[in-house]
Specification:
With about 425 residues, the protein is mainly α. It has a three-stranded antiparallel β-sheet. It is elongated and about 95 Å long.
Length: about 425
């Protein structure tokens, strides 16, 4: 155990050494904490400010130590002990941020910032105690201490607007029991970008979520029930996003669906899936005050043009607020899944037919289907990658180009499919 830790356990230990030694140890600890705070990756602005204050305290204490004017009194020792406790809290916060996952720090951004602010203000008060206890020091040192004290007592930190907006979305998603796939996919990608996790690598996102799950279990062991429950809700919400799911679980979903698809043609969308203004299937359905539902961009344009009525009923609207229609959106996504399941199976039948016209249709459709990584995994589960590679053997330049385009789309953000294609190329075209 080093000397600084030994002297920091109880006030009685501080009383065993000269006050100049206590001041030297504390000055050194403040400098080390200031440097450590600079390395915190999350809430950089907050910890940069905290580090700056600590760096400002260091020369003040060093000057006080060098002046040898500080009297060894109970009041001065009490002031140093208060400062020491503040430094220990800061070290604990910095160490915690160094150990916790990036998801954890995002979720707790408000409490982390609040704690950093409280530490800064408490240190300002402790500097005030030091100023009162050292009346015999020079006026210059006194003025430096008082100025720094006032700045720290009034210091205010705030989490970034981007992080606060994400937390608002997370809490809204929990309240609304959100299952909308597009919302969840957008949310997890927004979280990943904010905390510095590569969006294109879903394995990294899953890894961060696994760290967060372990931290939830640690909260349970500490019997921090409220924190555990909140983290459990966040995990349940984010686990529904496509990027947090393993390829195996995505393929299992496809297996369940493919055996239930007993239709020979694609299913037409329900009337409620279409925006009344354009007749197109909606991607972001929202409801207005009358309960009518529209594609967000279309109804926003309607209102922007000065209209204040329901386009379908003509009813005058006092309230122009838009409310996401998650039920309709979820139904649309389910319809899309079912039709994609049919299209993937239909593509296989066409590729196996040996007819160029059908093969051409299948390759074209596969390029359209691969809009999300989920469907790329579904295509792999249907064993279509091998068939697309085989198309390259056909002596038709146009068809070969389309096949290569399809393969390029199939591997986007999908390492598993890249491995499959590389293996198939090695086998099919090895000399």
């Amino acid at each position: 155990m080093d000397l600084a830790v030994e002297l920091g356990i109880k006030m009685t230990f501080l009383e065993l050494v000269p006050i100049s030694t206590c001041l030297a140890i504390l000055t050194n600890e403040i400098l080390k904490t200031a440097l450590a705070a600079q390395d915190v990756l999350m809430e950089k602005d907050t910890f940069k400010s905290l580090s700056a204050y600590f760096h400002s305290i260091h020369p003040v204490l060093h000057e006080l130590m060098s002046s040898r004017d500080m009297a060894d009194t109970p009041a001065s020792r009490q002031a140093l002990e208060a400062l020491r406790q503040d430094v220990e809290k800061a070290k604990s916060l910095v160490n915690m941020c160094g150990k916790k996952s990036r998801f954890y720090q995002l979720v707790h951004c408000r409490s982390i910032v609040k704690e950093a602010q409280q530490i800064t203000q408490d240190m300002g008060k402790s500097l005030g105690l030091l100023s009162l206890a050292t009346a015999e020091i020079s006026m210059d040192i006194q003025n430096n201490v008082d100025k720094l004290k006032d700045e720290m007592i009034h210091a205010e930190y705030r989490a970034s607007n981007q992080k606060l907006e994400i937390m608002n979305k997370i809490e809204m998603g929990i309240r609304q029991h959100q299952t909308d796939q597009a919302f969840l996919n957008d949310l997890i990608h927004e979280i990943a970008r904010t905390v510095g996790v590569p969006v294109e690598d879903s394995s990294e996102i899953r890894k961060e979520l696994e760290y967060f799950k372990k931290e939830k279990e640690e909260a349970a062991e500490r019997k921090e029930r409220e924190e555990e429950a909140f983290m459990e809700q966040i995990i349940a919400l984010l686990s529904r996003a496509e990027a947090t799911r393993t390829p195996e679980s995505i393929r299992e979903d496809y297996k369940e669906k493919r055996y239930l698809v007993n239709v020979d043609i694609e299913q037409e969308p329900l009337e409620s899936f279409r925006c009344p203004l354009t007749r197109e299937v909606m991607q972001d359905p929202v409801s207005i005050a009358t309960g009518s539902t529209f594609e967000r961009a279309n109804i926003e344009e309607w209102f922007a043009n000065g209209n204040k009525t329901d386009p379908t009923t003509g009813a005058v609207l006092v309230d122009l607020n838009l409310k996401p229609n998650y039920k309709i959106r979820e139904c649309i996504e389910e319809w899309i899944d079912w039709n994609h399941c049919f299209r993937i199976q239909n593509a296989r039948r066409k590729l196996e037919s040996g007819e160029k016209i059908k093969i051409n249709e299948a390759v074209d459709d596969l390029c359209k289907i691969c809009k999300t990584n989920k469907f790329r995994h579904w295509i792999a589960e249907e064993k279509l990658i091998k068939h697309v590679v085989e198309v390259l053997r056909i002596r038709d330049d146009s068809l070969r180009r389309k096949s290569l385009s399809a393969l390029q789309v199939i591997v986007i953000k999908n390492e598993e499919n890249k491995v499959r294609i590389n293996s198939l190329f090695s086998s099919a075209f090895s000399t």
